[in-house]
Amino acid sequence: MAIIKMETKSSDLTIITKPKKDTIFNTFKRDYQLWLLILPAIICVGIFNYIPMYGIQLAFREYDFTAGLTGGEWVGLKYFIQFVNSHLFYDLMRNTLMISITTIVVGFPAPIILALVINQIRVQRAKRVLQTTVYLPHFISIVVLVGMMNVILTPSGIGGNVMSAIGLGDINLLASVKTFIPVYVLSDVWQHVGWNSIIYLAALSAVDPQLYDSAKVDGASRWQIIRNVEIPAITPTIVILLILNMGTIISTGFEKIFLMQNSLNLPISEVIETYVYKIGIVSNQFSYAAAIGLFNTLINFSLLVAMNYLAKRTSRISLW
Amino acid sequence: MSIFSLKRKSLSDVFFDIFIYGTCIIMFLAVAYPLWFVIIASVSDSGMVASGQVLLFPKEFSLFGYKEIFSDSRIWNGYKNTVVYATLGTTVNLLLTIPAAYVLSRYEFKARRLLMFFFIFTMFFNGGLIPTYLLMKDLSLINTMWVFIFNPWTVNVFNLIIARTFFEHTIPKEMYEAAAIDGCNHFRFFSQIVLPLSKAVLSVIALYYLVYHWNNFFTGLIYVRDSGIQPLQIILRDILISNQVFGEGAGTGGADGGYAQRYADQIKYGVIIVSTLPVLVIYPFMQKYFEKGVMIGSVKG
């Protein structure tokens, strides 16, 4: 830089020599230490995240134990066709979509509402106590959560007692086709609503105080302030999180559904991911399971891209 | 006129307050009561719990469940395994994530955008369960403790972004330039200047990883068959969900099934407490940090 400045000052020089633009290659020697620091992470992600992506071709091949991950014979779409034609296809798709759509419809607005409510509390201590309590379930493991549901909601547990007290004693909350989705979704809200509200509370705390003042001067009620000041302020956050959530619409919570499954609720609780586990890991039909898994991944990924495109068109907010 | 409008406003404000605080109290009870109930049920007599008489406070104090738990070697073996995996795992996680995050925060690093994409892409697309499983098999990681430490979640991209955002905001660009003029290289700058300045974010990320390891059930389920090296969560599944409460297969069937089930439930309440205790103990101290992590991560970088 200094050299160029000197050159431009001396008026007899007409050609200004520009410094060569930095590229990955010519800065390699300068930045080799940075490369060394990031190399372990690159190797780890390369092996454990990218090699499986390369291994997706297994879905189009006949798995051959001796030939390894990608050595089997090419069979094209055989396994996809087998899946689409299988008698379970309709049930799996229906269950997967029903569970994930209900989770989003109920679970997505809940933390937004909670954040708006928490934000209204004026008593700081009450606010802290409530926040500490509602964040807590997020740290309970899924096994313990489902275990808690098993002891509490079972007909002989306290939840079952409440059910029979209000005259619904013959419904087993844990082992019925009708109650599986409500129990799954509501327990999910119970566990994560507090934690998911933090991000909206952060967005709310960034609202310009002047906006509140001018709204008050204009005589806005507290409800009007929520509607016209606070909700617009958190809309970008809402849109980003909605896109991210849409990307996982079809990937239901495998672990929780798997743990909640029993023979009585199986007609509604068998979803694509639990089926992949049973076909692949339990019965060792690797190629078929890989094809079903890929089917799932592709729907997810295209939904994410589509939602991102939509959001970009309508509100100019996007992930990339 | 003005008095009238003031009155009306305060009346609507009163309703608004009732609505807000009512919602808060319902939320608080809905979350706190199940947790409280598990605690009181674990120290009450199992008959009292089964007949629904334990509602607000423990009744006929009994530590039967805890006594059974302390004599159950499966739980302690699982505990030991999980402590080992969590300690070792978190160390490896940090050794990989934090230096990478530092590098990705350096504006002069030319491969920054490219590598960021390399990492973020794995958040949205992955090979799926089966190819990952077969890879682990090819690497002979199946049925070993190493699968808990080296797996697709070893570098958690979300944590990587939190750390990178933190470095970008707290380590001024000029700081390295000044240090470099004094002859400091990146290694030294990172270990002697960046790390000591980043204790807050280091503890947040270490805690995220610790909780992940503590609660990890998936890895054991998919990749491990050998019950001796199973982590706590798998043992918990056997006890809490598969109902294998009594170690030696003294099941719940038979004529006195209901009777045995009462004791089984008693043990389950205790197991829930014992297994979640470590997380619950650090939670109140660390809540601020956890929260901070979400907020740092939410700044779009």
Descriptive notes:
Chain A is mainly α. Chain A has helices spanning 2-9, 32-54, 78-85, 89-107, 109-120, 124-135, 142-153, 158-165, 180-205, 209-217, 222-246, 254-260, 266-269, 272-282, 286-315. Chain A has a domain at 100-269: Orthogonal Bundle (MetI-like fold). Chain A is flat and about 75 Å long. The two termini of chain A are 33 Å apart. Mean pLDDT of chain A is 85; it is low at 1-13. With 301 residues, chain B is an all-alpha fold. Chain B has helices spanning 2-42, 46-50, 64-70, 73-105, 112-124, 129-138, 157-170, 173-181, 186-197, 199-215, 218-223, 232-241, 257-298. In chain B, α3 (64-70) packs across α13 (257-298) and α4 runs antiparallel to α10 (199-215). Chain B is globular. Classes of the chains: A mainly alpha (320), B mainly alpha (301). The interface between A and B is large, with 89 and 95 residues.
Highlighted features:
heterodimer; A: about 325 residues; mainly alpha; MetI-like fold; B: about 300 residues; 13 helices; about 75% helix; globular; disordered N terminus
Summarize the structure.
The complex is a heterodimer of chains A (320) and B (301). Chain A has 320 residues and is mostly helical. Chain A is built from 15 helices and no strands.
